[in-house]
Design a protein that fits this description.
alpha/beta; Rossmann fold; Helicase, Ruva Protein, domain 3; Zinc Finger, Delta Prime, domain 3; elongated; binds zinc ion
Length: about 500
């Protein structure tokens, strides 16, 4: 049995032009090579798996190629081939994570003292170079201060900020970017095809996203999924390996949300938790599905990472909801992510976030409101006393004013009941029932104040409060502000927005 060479290794680029997603880096280095501007020290920094060591070896080849230094090494000559195999005696690769002590510094010194054995340069590739000890950095600095002409250092690091400034200033700094998802997907598709592997677009997307711009990690993940699934790799196989729910579960959750079915949505979250997976993974997938729906709403033909069997249903969903609503849903879903990230119990946080999303049919009403459509029930006019707003499901008796009036009627205090009925606002504040009399005739206000004993008795009997406070007439400015606030607070549209998005009224101002 021959050893299986992992994909990341087998598909490691051997030419600058095969490198994926590092165009700026490649152009910079090739230009420098073409102009024979060769630095004695390079610092390659960037996330793991984005090509730093690969480019370091390519640079070593370009420097030591028999035809070099050259912008594109031939790959054929002995130095090129030896460097590719890792057997060149003039290219020293060290991992500073495990070789950071004083002996290693000595090795460094030796490496730079000796002339190249055969090739043009002694190239030292120091991986994870930020892990060098203080002594090692000091030794390195000494070399970099007076670099021997035959030595080239290539430092690679994921943590550039950990280098002493003295080292940084003596290196040509080359920053590697994370590789965009689309490029990783394209590369995965290319590798899969050449390997005779059937890989769906959705599966490639899932791998690319899970590995966050690291091509090496993406290829390693493809290896793992292949070992698990064989030669046909779809979304569900990838999801299984990385511990995400199958796509069917994500779609089922979306269908529950789409139908505003809170119990069904929460049941799915619960069963996800019971399956032993992190429900946050399901939520993450839901957020991505929402993003895809948004894309589909703007362009139904957009290539989306969806299994063909679900696509028509989701395209239809997207068209029905439309981009504006989906943008709001996505925004809401992203807020939920923050909630989940900071939660001690992710299951509970996911349930809360999903529950809030399931309120979207109300969101649609907000949408209508923001679009300028009137909202039911009838808009509250300036003169409508809050206490007498009557909706079919909330009979007047259920409000504090209603209950107080009912008790006063029972007590036979019909006149007082009538006055209370005219009060603009009756509200319970702690153990006090507040009657705000602004706007009523002064005589009525006085009558109410005079009847405070009877009102207190009624309030107690109605189970509302143990004290009653009859507010004086407000100053005109205060009264105006309070009126305005009351109007805004009782507005159905505002109530809806607060209910769906959370939050509270900070301040209320009138448009000039
Ligand atoms: Zn060559």
């Amino acid at each position: 049995m021959t050893g299986y060479q992992v994909l990341a290794r087998r598909w490691r680029p051997q030419r600058f032009e095969d490198l994926v997603g590092q165009d700026v880096v490649v152009r910079t280095l090739r230009n420098a090579l073409a102009n024979k501007q060769i630095a004695h020290a390079y610092l390659f920094s960037g996330l793991r798996g984005v090509g730093k060591t690969t480019v370091a070896r390519l640079l070593a080849k370009a420097l030591n190629c028999q035809h070099g230094p050259i912008p594109e090494p031939c790959g054929e000559c002995v130095p090129c081939q030896e460097i590719a195999r890792g057997s060149s005696l003039d290219v020293l690769e060290m991992d500073a994570a495990s070789n950071r002590g004083i002996d290693d510094v000595r090795e460094l010194r030796e490496a730079v003292k000796n002339l190249p054995i055969r090739d043009r340069y002694r190239v030292v590739i120091l991986d994870e170079a930020h892990q060098l000890t203080k002594d090692a950095f000091a030794a390195l600095l000494k070399i970099l201060e007076e670099p021997p002409p035959h030595v080239i250092f290539i430092l690679a690091s994921t943590e550039k900020e950990r280098f002493p400034a003295t080292i940084l200033s003596r290196c040509l700094q080359v920053d590697f970017r994370p590789i965009p998802v689309d490029l990783v997907v394209t590369r995965l598709a290319h590798v899969a095809k050449s390997e005779g592997l059937e890989l769906t677009y959705g599966a490639a997307q899932l791998i690319a996203r899970a590995t966050e711009g690291s091509l090496r990690d993406a290829l390693s993940l493809l290896d793992r999924v292949r070992a698990f699934a064989g030669e046909t790799v779809g979304e569900n196989e990838v999801a299984d390996v990385i511990g995400l729910p199958p796509f069917e579960t994500v779609v089922a959750l979306w269908r529950a949300l789409e139908g505003g079915d809170v119990p069904a949505a929460l049941a799915l979250v619960r069963s996800e938790e019971q399956s032993g997976r992190d429900p946050a993974g399901l939520y993450e997938q839901l957020v991505r599905l929402l993003h895809v729906l948004l894309l589909l709403a703007t362009d139904p033909s957009v290539p989306a990472p969806l299994p063909a069997s679900h696509r028509p249903m989701l395209v239809e969903s997207a068209a029905r909801l439309g981009p504006a609503l989906l943008i709001r849903l996505l925004g809401l879903a992203l807020e939920g992510k923050d909630l989940i990230a900071g939660a001690d119990t992710p299951g509970v946080a996911v349930a809360a976030a999903v529950g809030r999303l399931a309120l979207w049919p109300r969101l649609r009403r907000v949408e209508a409101l923001l679009g300028g459509e009137p909202i039911s029930p009838t808009p509250v006019s300036a003169s409508t006393p809050t206490a007498s707003v009557v909706t079919p499901d909330a009979p007047v008796i259920a409000t504090p004013a209603g209950r107080l009036v009912a008790v006063l009627e029972q007590m036979g205090a019909h006149l007082l009941a009538g006055r209370v009925g005219a009060v603009r606002e009756v509200r319970v504040d702690g153990d006090t029932l507040v009657l705000r009399c602004g706007g009523l005739p002064l005589a009525t206000q006085k009558s109410l104040r005079d009847a405070s004993e009877q009102l207190t008795a009624a309030a107690r009997q109605a189970g509302l409060a143990s004290k009653v406070q009859v507010d004086e007439n407000d100053s005109p400015a205060q009264k105006h502000d309070q009126d305005l606030r009351a109007r805004v607070e009782s507005d159905e549209g505002v109530k809806l927005v607060l209910e769906v998005f959370g939050g509270r009224l900070e301040s209320v101002e009138e448009k000039p």
